[in-house]
Every structure is written in structure tokens, then in C-alpha cells.
């Protein structure tokens, strides 16, 4: 006779594996929390694997089971705090048709940068020092742009859609730099209302463009 235990091997056999996966994810989350705390208290250069591991209550060996380097851990944290998963840029897709909605969206964006200022200073430093972090940030922008299918779908051909994607890339990178200068590092202090008015008007004009690809200028040689 087949016992009840042998009749249902699946769930029992899978449980240890699922527990290990859960524990591994919990450890990874602790490490990422520690990375964030260490960066907010010091900076990227001063942060060490020993300091991060100690803050997380783990060992260096455990750290390296999850991340190959400090840079990779910081890059993972960058992905973790990027607001795309909360629909931030998806909301931009719906705001494009209205300067007023664009302005409100930009104000929310600046507030997000303000609330993460200490961390973003360290992440900006990390991107300037380590290519791994810089490449991950650039990839994050690509993903953010991809969360706007409404705008990207306006182009009637591939060239028009490529132009639309390029516009978004330029504007998102511009916004990041403006936010870093004005509310994170505070190296530029323009009137905030005027800044929002001008940016919203410029974004609206740019994003409401026809979507036609720009004409290419070709060198011509006359005989």
C-alpha cells in the first residue's frame, strides 16, 4: 500500500527549496538595505564590503554569494529605488497632452529626488566612478522610456517611433540632471515655479511634435 507521505512527494520535496529561496531573498534584501544605509551615512568611496556586510549582520562570504562587487550591489540598489515599478513614468504617458498635468508630474518628480537626495548623491558619485553603476542607470532609463507605449506608439513607421524614443531619452536625461543640480546637490537654485513652467512648456512642445523623424543632412560634393 502506498503511504500518504509517498503519495504526495511534490509539496514536501519542494518546501525545503522554497524555504532556501525565501531565506536567500531575505538576505539579499538585508544587504541592499545595508548598502542604502551605508551610502546615506557616508559616500560611495568610503563604503566597504566589510561595512555593508557588518551592517546587514552577514559575512563577506555571504555578500559575495549575492553580489560580485560593491559596484554590483550599488547597481542593484539603483534598480531597486528606481520608481518605474510604481507607475511613475507610466503616469507621464497620460500627462503628455496637457502642460498642466506635465507640470504636476514634474513637481512630483522633483519631490521624489528631494526625498532621496542623500542616497542619490552617493549613487551619482558611484556612477561617475564605476562603469557598472553608470551602465545600470542608463539601462534603467531605457526601461523607463519603454513604460510609455502610448507616446511611443504614435509613430506611423519605425523611423518615427525611433525619433519618439530619442525625444524621451533626451528629456528624461535632462530631467535627471536638472533635478540633481537643483534639489539634490543644490548647485543651481532657480525659481522653482518658473523652472516648472518652462520645463512643462518645453516638454509639451517637444512631445507634441509630429513624430516625424528629423531630416538628415547629407554632405554633397559638387563637381
TrEMBL record:
It holds the Pfam family TetR_N. Residues 48-67 bind DNA. Residues 11-20 have a biased composition (Basic and acidic residues). Residues 1-20 are annotated as: Disordered. The keyword DNA-binding applies. Keywords: DNA-binding, Transcription, Transcription regulation. GO terms for molecular function: DNA-binding transcription factor activity; transcription cis-regulatory region binding. Signal peptide: none annotated. This is Helix-turn-helix domain-containing protein.
Amino acid at each position: 500500500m502506498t503511504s500518504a507521505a509517498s503519495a504526495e512527494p511534490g509539496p514536501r520535496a519542494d518546501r525545503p527549496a522554497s524555504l532556501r529561496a525565501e531565506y536567500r531573498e531575505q538576505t539579499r534584501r538585508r544587504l541592499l538595505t545595508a548598502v542604502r544605509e551605508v551610502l546615506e551615512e557616508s559616500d560611495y568611496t568610503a563604503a566597504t564590503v566589510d561595512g555593508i556586510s557588518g551592517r546587514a549582520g552577514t559575512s563577506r562570504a555571504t555578500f559575495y554569494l549575492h553580489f560580485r562587487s560593491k559596484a554590483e550591489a550599488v547597481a542593484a540598489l539603483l534598480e531597486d529605488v528606481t520608481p518605474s515599478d510604481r507607475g511613475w513614468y507610466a503616469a507621464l504617458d497620460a500627462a503628455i497632452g496637457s502642460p498642466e498635468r506635465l507640470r504636476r508630474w514634474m513637481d512630483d518628480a522633483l519631490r521624489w529626488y528631494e526625498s532621496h537626495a542623500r542616497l542619490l548623491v552617493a549613487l551619482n558619485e558611484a556612477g561617475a566612478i564605476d562603469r557598472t553603476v553608470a551602465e545600470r542607470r542608463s539601462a534603467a532609463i531605457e526601461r523607463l522610456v519603454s513604460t510609455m507605449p502610448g507616446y511611443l506608439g504614435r509613430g506611423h513607421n519605425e523611423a518615427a517611433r525611433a525619433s519618439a524614443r530619442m525625444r524621451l531619452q533626451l528629456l528624461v536625461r535632462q530631467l535627471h540632471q536638472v533635478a540633481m543640480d537643483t534639489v539634490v546637490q543644490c548647485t543651481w537654485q532657480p525659481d522653482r515655479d518658473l523652472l516648472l513652467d518652462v520645463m512643462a512648456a518645453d516638454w509639451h512642445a517637444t512631445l507634441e511634435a509630429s513624430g516625424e523623424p528629423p531630416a538628415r543632412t547629407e554632405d554633397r560634393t559638387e563637381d
